[in-house]
Design brief:
about 850 residues; alpha+beta; seven-stranded mixed β-sheet; 33 strands; binds zinc ion
């Protein structure tokens, strides 16, 4: 018996683990053109023998396009942060290639109800986007793309001819080139000649932050909707250029699973997604099942994964007449790994991804007409859906922060949402022409607009794969209103011209004032401080004459006096003008220090602003996406360099050169807490978010007290075994939006104008109110939930809790922020709070922050 087993294992090994020959993967009933290079001809190794690096992947895609130009066209969508090309192969039959632009134009007519009736779908190809490995360390997808590209370029015969006649394939070999490169380097450098399958081995345990993320440690599979990152922006341009019918998203899951394909959990489909979408997903699923059955692979559906958050690749298409399909292959991570289901080899995972790419294309061909009709109907129905919906339009815009308004409008336009200027005669004073826009709900993207603006409070389920709310104008902290009667629309906005910066009043010999409300004011002030300018901030309000009119200046107004500078007035004005232009700011040239009401400009109510020298703790234990969000905010938006300190480095270096330290969600087991505390006592500003708040309290660095949520069940209740997952799971805070009351006079609230600030909570850090009445600048009242799902027990804990608390520790300040102010880089409504902590933390009056008694 043992002998037999051994022989069987050998056979299995021969067939599976080391089987990197193309025969292992490709259907054997097909012949292949000898003029098309096989992967090994270009990448120097067999598929599955090594993890493909992104550069070699691109080399192969280029080689395929060069060898089969009649079938394959290569486009470069753009470059990643690290300068890697995002390539897209457009693969279809030679006949279709010759009239590709005409096919595209005919196809996109289906998404325009004013033209779609005239589109003839009888012979129209279906458009299918095949996308791989948006999580760079889920690399079987990207490795399978070598095979799919080869197959589509080289296969011969009636079957492939028919397929390519009926399908235009938009082939995206790597959704996340920077992450793929990082991960492949890791997996390859740890491969042994004699494969090591022990999951404990370093090969399977990447160092922080891992290859899942893009350059800024973001999860690109949450960015389809916010589209903050260049990779998403490049991709969306092509998505909307072609409006595919199907988009596949090839991922990996835990190593002990099998293979998942959608449909996912039925009760967790976003209500804006039509039922027909899930029906078609199911029909396509039959093809995946049949193809996987044929090679003997196990799989599951309708569990674990859902179709709720529109920022994911498999869900974003679902609100736009397209069908997104999620594939999740159990990960071998390295080359061969021991799992609950036996040895899992890298080639095996690649084969499943390849086979389901083929099943998708086969299903697309067979169901072509139905998908095309569905897409046409989806957009035709948009007008009916608009008619049945109470809100007819949204108006949005912040007259105090035009740049943020334009950033929001830019996001809408990336999704081909039409926006309009306010019409002449507009009379709602909360919104000003030029600083606000209208979005009519009666347009083809009706459903997506709702996916962006809706507040959601009612849910069918209480478990979620990702966040439960992302109401975008709340996230941006942007004033907006639902209009229940259709307004007149001003001119359609074809291209957005961002507001230009200006210095009102020209050159000053006395002082300049800059309002802190504007998005990029912190970037400008940082540049001033870096250039050695002397800068103050108003801790009081005042009114004074500016260019002939009385103007009110708010808390947080920045004062740049002329005489105290090393520069002369001419040099200073040149610098101020350059910064106003660069950061699109309105700056006021002032001729007097005498105000009409409030504090004169020479008053001690103007505090000195010190240049922040920022370090943030990163490395093992720290949540990479939270850290990446802080990095991205400082680096990309605010041009503020920050040192990334690993705990081990922190523990041995001199910290005196830093006056600001950032710690985000995660755990910090190796950080020297005494050293940190001493640094704060000496005058440092420690900015803590999420679990870092709990860590600091537990380690005696702050004295925040916490509330606990009640347990959902008590010992008297009798429940069945299988209820546990649902009940315990529901006590997670998946992510919802809560409104905090802000003390607008507090330095941490400078730049805010709305009394209620929308913050994003995805943790169970519930802070008790500080005993010092001045130390809680942001506070959750009795009705904090604005959008999203949270359990009753957690909601009770959030009610009347603190969102932000300031502590004094010696000469330093600890800013405790219970939630994530920089969430996914689109939470611009929280970024002011974060920047305030960095710039104004040190000016917070000690008596207003001390909580020890
Ligand atoms: Zn994934």
């Amino acid at each position: 018996m043992r002998k037999l087993l051994f022989a069987f294992c050998l056979l299995l090994i021969a067939n599976c683990f080391y089987a990197q020959d193309l025969k292992y993967y490709l259907p054997d009933s097909v012949t292949y053109s000898s003029t098309i290079p096989k992967p090994k001809d270009i990448i120097y190794h067999e598929v599955g023998e090594w993890h493909i690096t992104h550069d070699r992947l691109v080399n192969y895609m280029k080689a395929i396009a060069a060898a089969a130009p009649e079938r394959v066209k290569l486009e470069t969508m753009g470059l990643t942060y690290e300068g890697r090309p995002q390539v897209l192969l457009i693969i279809t039959s030679p006949k279709n290639q010759q009239r590709l632009e005409e096919i595209r134009q005919q196809h996109v007519k289906l998404t325009d109800p004013s033209q779609s009736s005239s589109a003839n779908i009888d012979n129209m190809p279906i458009v299918v986007w095949i996308g791989h490995s948006i999580h760079g360390n889920e690399s079987s997808g990207a490795n399978a793309s070598l095979l799919t590209a080869y197959y589509l370029a080289a296969a011969q015969g009636k079957q492939i001819d028919e397929l390519l006649d009926n399908v235009v394939v938009l082939f995206d070999p790597s959704f996340n080139p920077d992450g793929l490169q990082r991960f492949s380097t890791w997996a390859n450098q740890h491969k042994s000649k004699n494969l090591v399958s022990d999951p404990n081995s370093r090969e399977f345990n990447e160092v922080w932050p891992g290859g899942r993320f893009n350059h800024y440690w973001f999860d690109l599979n949450r960015d389809w909707l916010p589209a903050v990152h260049v990779e998403s922006q490049n991709r969306l341009t092509w998505f909307h250029k072609w409006k595919p019918n199907i988009l596949t998203d090839h991922h990996e899951q835990g190593s002990n699973a099998t293979f998942f394909f959608q449909p996912g959990v039925p009760s967790r489909v976003n209500p804006l997604t039509p039922e027909k979408n899930q029906e078609l997903t199911g029909k396509l699923g039959k093809f995946h099942a049949a193809f996987l059955d044929r090679i003997g692979s196990m799989y599951f559906t309708k569990e674990n994964y859902d179709d709720f958050y529109y920022g994911k690749g498999s869900t974003y298409p679902d609100v736009q007449g397209c069908i997104g399909i999620l594939f999740e292959q159990a990960s071998s991570r390295g080359h061969l790994q021991q799992t609950n289901n036996g040895l899992l080899s890298f080639p095996f995972t690649i084969r499943n991804q390849f086979v389901t790419a083929l099943s998708t294309l086969e299903g697309a061909k067979a169901l072509r007409r139905e998908f095309l009709e569905y897409q046409r109907d989806f957009f035709k129905q948009s007008s009916n859906r608009a008619g049945a919906f109470g809100t007819k339009a949204y108006v949005f815009g912040d007259k105090n922060d035009k740049t943020k308004t334009f950033e929001f409008a830019t996001m809408l336009k990336r999704h081909q949402i039409a926006i309009n200027e306010l019409p002449d005669g507009w009379n709602d004073k909360d919104f000003e022409k030029g600083a606000a826009f209208l979005v009519s709900l009666d347009q083809p993207q009706h459903s997506l607009i709702r996916g962006i603006f809706d507040k959601t409070i009612e849910f069918k389920d209480s478990l979620f794969y990702d966040i439960t709310a992302w109401t975008m104008p709340l996230a941006f902290g942007l004033p907006y209103k639902e209009l229940t009667t259709a307004p007149g629309l001003g001119a359609k906005v074809e291209s957005l011209n961002f507001p230009k910066g200006e210095v009102i009043g020209g050159k000053s010999n006395y002082a300049y004032l800059l309002e802190w409300d504007e998005l990029y004011a912190p970037a400008a002030v940082n540049e001033m401080l870096t250039a050695g300018l002397f800068v103050k901030v108003a801790t009081n309000t005042f009114e004074m004459q500016v260019a002939g009119t009385n103007k009110k200046f708010d808390y947080g107004t920045i004062l740049i006096p002329v005489n105290q500078q090393k520069d002369n007035a001419e040099t200073l004005t040149a610098k101020i003008n350059a910064l106003a232009e660069k950061y699109r700011l309105k700056v006021y040239a002032i001729t007097t220090g005498n105000v009409n009401t409030g504090s004169d400009l020479g008053s001690s109510r103007f505090a000195n602003v010190t240049k922040p020298n920022v370090a943030m703790i990163v490395g093992p234990g720290v949540n990479p996406t939270d850290a990446g969000e802080a990095w991205h905010m400082l680096d990309q938006r605010m041009n503020i360099p920050a040192t990334h300190l690993e705990s081990s480095v922190f523990n041995r270096v001199d910290l005196n050169k830093y006056n600001t330290m950032i710690m985000v969600g995660g755990s910090y087991p190796d950080l020297n807490k005494d050293k940190l505390k001493a640094w704060v006592q000496a005058g440092g500003v420690l900015v803590l978010t999420e679990e870092a708040v709990s860590w600091a309290a537990q380690n005696g660095i702050s004295d925040v007290k916490f509330k606990r949520a009640k347990a959902p069940v008590d010992s008297t209740q009798k429940l069945i075994y299988t209820d546990r997952e649902q009940i315990d799971g529901a006590q997670q805070v998946f992510g919802a939006i809560f409104g905090a009351d802000a003390d607008l006079a507090h330095p941490l609230a400078y730049g805010y104008n709305q009394k209620t600030i929308s913050l994003f909570k995805a943790n169970r850090v519930f802070m008790d109110k500080s005993k010092n009445p001045y130390a809680t600048p942001f506070y959750y009242g009795s009705k904090p939930l604005q959008s999203g799902w949270v359990s009753r027990e957690n909601l009770d804990a959030i009610k009347n809790s603190s969102a932000v608390i300031v502590n004094t520790v010696g000469n330093g300040r600890v800013i405790n922020i219970a939630d994530n102010p920089n969430f996914r880089a689109f939470w611009l409504g929280g970024s002011k709070l974060f920047m305030n902590a960095i710039f104004f933390g040190r000016i917070i009056d000690a008596a207003s922050a001390r909580t020890e008694e």
